[in-house]
Amino acid sequence: MSGPTGDKLIRVDMSNLSVAIDDFPEEWKLLGGRALSAKILLGECDPTCDPLGPDNVLVMAPGVCSGTAAPTSGRLSIGGKSPLTGGIKEANVGGNPGQDLMKLGYRAVLLKGKPADPEKRYAIDITADGASVVEANDTKGMWNYALIDHLAKSYSDTASFISIGPAGEMQLTGASVACTDQEKARHPARHAARGGLGAVMGSKGVKYVCVDAGKARSRQPANRKEFMALGKKFTKDYLDGPQMFKTGTSSVVPVANMLSTFPYKNRTEGSSPDAETLDGARIVESFETYGGGMHNCLTGCIVQCSNVVHDKDGNYRTSALEFETLTMLGANCAISSWEDVADLDRLCDEVGLDTIEAGAAIAIYMDSGGMEFGDAEGAKRLLREIAEGTELGNAIGNGAVSTGKYAKHHRVPAVRGQAIPAWDPRPLKATGITYATSPQGADHTAGLVVNPGLGEEELARASQESQLVNAATDSSGFCQFIQPTLEDVRMFYGHLYGEEVTREQVADMGWECLTDEWEFNRRAGLSDDPDQMPDCMKQDAVGPANAVFDVKSEIVAQAYTRFETRDELFAQKAAG
Amino acid sequence: MPQVKIPPPYQGSTLGQARVEVEGTTVRECIQAVGDRYPGFFDLVIDPNGDVHRFVQLFINGDEVDRAAVDTSVAEGDEVEVLAAVAGG
Predict the structure, then answer these.
(1) ipTM for this prediction
(2) What residues of chain A lie within 8 A of the CB of B44, using their CB?
(3) pLDDT over 90 at A33, yes or no
(4) Long-range CB pairs of A498-501, under 8 A, 24+ apart, other chains included
């Protein structure tokens, strides 16, 4: 047996509401997720197009191992030309739609074109029998949770959903794409958040995609016995290890604070006096009194890093309250209560917004004097204003750079139009190189290096290796938090298709993903200039070491040229 | 002498050193000895109450040390590994 065969691509043209189902090219079988999205965009999307126009292509591509029994492997990539950066974008997301698409043999969904009437809303229904475009005007303007409650009444229990909230419909460039988690209630709590891809989905008039895998089985590997044994060993090794994410990413808060990468007040400081009250330990403590707990966001995940947060009355409030959200909507806005941040997180999930971009934008607005730092109720009001379409709401919903322009405020911590995430490029200089050189812009999931002790000569290589490993991981379907190595990916691919896959092949696929994305950006007119870091990151020091981003441009630029492969690369774990 | 393995997130405090040889007969003494040489390191491992931070795990020659047993003895040539749970968004 040769592994999964007969895979398809779904092409939807929203200009004439037509659907075509094409065979998936056999030679692309080891391309999935981010790498597949990049290959499709480079071949089928005009890089100079208007990101919110008919020529942009929104790609939904599960990773290669999605839909199999491999642990924590069901991730989905959402890709397209970003209205925020003007370059290529991939946002990786959990939940169940990725696995469901792959169980049906759909390697990607491509949304092209644009409906003639921008006021109309549509949905894409996907089943084993194919795909169709249906009218969905009754869902116009719905917030994400209300939308899923509404859809649950008419769709099967086995369906999962990909949706946008009002921010996406309004084509705001901080808009996210939501995916439902594996819970029975199907919470739209998992977001492909970065880069404004929700706005691209909104520009195509698509409010949601329903994927109903029905009773479809998981994908059958060619070497079933070996594949299952590998999965079992991979699981055991993970569970026998330190399990760094067992209480969620929010547990990172205190140590990030000590490392000066828990930015405070629009990044004017690297540590916050509120680390104690924003610490994920407070969330874990709340499980005892409020309920909630840790869970897996997608079926088959053994990491279970996602927290489910309840309110004082024991009712579901949000999921998952992550480190990035606690930092950007908490510390960076000087909001000190994790419970307020939980409310802000829920609002972002409802309206359909990237919590990093929204947190950066609100902090900029506060820093400009538009609102007091620490005004949690004011921040919640701002997020509601986004859905109401006020001028200020539009500015915040369009992200950090837009808010800086609106408030006429100079201090805008963004790279290539995208807000810098919590992980700070001043103490973490290799991560800063990632922000400056990654085709994805300032995105920690593109290549996070948490090592403030690296020498200057090691920085570019560390960034590049992390970028390569993360690109390969985000193409595989594995979550970065199960921390696969290239060697792990190679082994799973080999048994999935019953053929030898070398580790060099997997490394080359990671590098090719990056070069495809850089090429798209070049054609889009984006510069390779390594000097991308804003002045505030180069001038305003943080921490006891007075760290600034002071890496020379010629060092930063080294990340664009492939370093000679060394053995350590194959054992390096993904980190994002 | 025992050797202390420094996790990447803490190598800023040890000026890039990934391993440090120290004089010490317990895990705590070894951590203290690294901290004496590199100010800032000790506080990243041990909290103000003298306990191991909950996001830190300690190992001797690959075997996890109970966080309440930070005064466990170490011998000549032992490797004390410090692991810090730092990654993810």
Answers:
(1) 0.91
(2) 255, 258
(3) yes
(4) A498/A1, A498/A2, A498/A3, A498/A221, A498/A222, A498/A223, A499/A222, A501/A30
Has domain B3-84 been given CATH number 3.10.20.30?
A: yes
Residues from chain B contacting residue A423 (CB–CB below 8 Å):
89
Residue in B34, B56, B57, B86 to test binding to A, most A beta-carbons within 10 Å: B86
Instruction: Tell me the average pLDDT across A66-94.
Output: 98
Domain boundaries, chain B: 3-84
* Alpha-carbon distance B21 to nearest alpha carbon in chain A (angstroms): 18
Nearest-angstrom CA–CA distance, A414 and A412: 6
In a domain, A314, yes or no: no
Instruction: Please state whether the predicted TM-score (pTM) of the whole model is above 0.90.
Output: yes
Distance CA A556, CA A547 (A): 17
**Residues of chain A positioned with their CB less than 8 A from the CB of B54:** 251, 281
**For residue A130, what are the contacts with CB-CB under 8 A and spacing of at least 6?**
A19, A21
pLDDT for residue A76 is more than 90: yes
Q: Which residues pair with B21 in a beta bridge?
A: B3
